[in-house]
Every structure is written in structure tokens, then in C-alpha cells.
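Glycosyltransferase family 29 (Sialyltransferase), Falsirhodobacter algicola. C-alpha cells?
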Amino acid sequence: MTRLGFTLARLLRREEPLCALSVPQADVLADWAGRRVALVGNARGLAEGRNGAAIDAADIVIRINRAPMPAAASHGTRTDALALATALDGAQMRRIRPGRILWMSPKRKRLPWAVATHPGFYLHPQDDIARLQALLGAPPSTGAMMIDLLARSSTARIDLYGFDFFATLSLSGRRGAADVPHDFSAEAQRVQTLLAQDSRFFLHPHG
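C-alpha cells:
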């Protein structure tokens, strides 16, 4: 696809040509099969702990959006995959250095050309987003969508770091829970259900 064709497809909300740029979801899940995945959220409280070595010890490290990494001791250094719902500039991408980029937002108009043409680019299906939104009763956060995707994978273990559902706000911005469209109480309950039902999930405290 040319850049002009991409721009038109994005503006006209033509899902099919955009999906043609994406690797199949099955390929992404196959990459994670049997492996230990660390999903790193952006809670400010994570910076107070020393989980960095444990994060980097995972087989796959997935970070979210701006992926703040204030210190290796608290956050680790690797980014095998970056789950995005916002556009990042070149300097931010060079800092994060993601292996694969997963565009999780239903808002395709925000999808940058550089992301859509990144090697191994993945576009999260609108149907998956709508299903999770119906379950939560609100638009899901990027973290919630990633947790849902991982729950449907055959990974061996899923470690969640930096998730406190806005109790300590976010390292990547100043907005509070009331300033975003997500229902963090519903997302927290969803995670608690997974922790009770799926032995692969572990939610780590910040300290």
C-alpha cells in the first residue's frame, strides 16, 4: 500500500486495507505460546519498587503507550512489544526501541504511517475491542485490551507490573481517573477474576 492509499483508507475508515497491513492475530499469539510474558503498565507506584530485573527476565516484555522507564531498577530496559493507542514521535520510538508494535486503539485515524509499516505491525480487531467494551461497560484501556489478549493466548505465565488501576495515577500523564473514559473499577474486577480463575496470571505489588 502506498502512503497516499493508507491516508485515504484511514480517513475514510476503510478497515479492510488497514487490516491487510497487519500480521494475523494468530501469529502474534503463536509468538507468545509457552513463554513467560511481563506486561508493564504505567502506574506511578512502579517507580517506587525494584521490579526491573524481574521484568527483564521474562521471555517477552510488553509495554504500553509512552512506556515510561525512569530507572532500570524499577522498570527494566527491554521492550519486545509496544501496545499503542496514541501516536509517538521519532524520539520516543528511538528511546523505547520496540520489537513489535500493536495498535490497540479503535480510532484508526490516529494510526501513524510509521507504525503501520513497522516490521511485525499488528492491528487489534474492532470486534475484540467492542466485545471487551460490552463486558466492562466502558471503553477499555490499552492495558485492559492487552490483558484480554494475553488471557486468550497460550502463554505459560503472565506477570502484571505497574497496574494499580489509577490508584497512583500514571507516569505518562497528569490526568486522573475522572479525566479518562475508562472504568478502572470494572477493569480491576476483571483482573481479580482472572487471578482467581487463571493460574498463569500474577499481579505484582509496586514495592
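Strands lie at 36-40, 60-64, 81-84, 100-103, 122-123, 157-161, 201-203.
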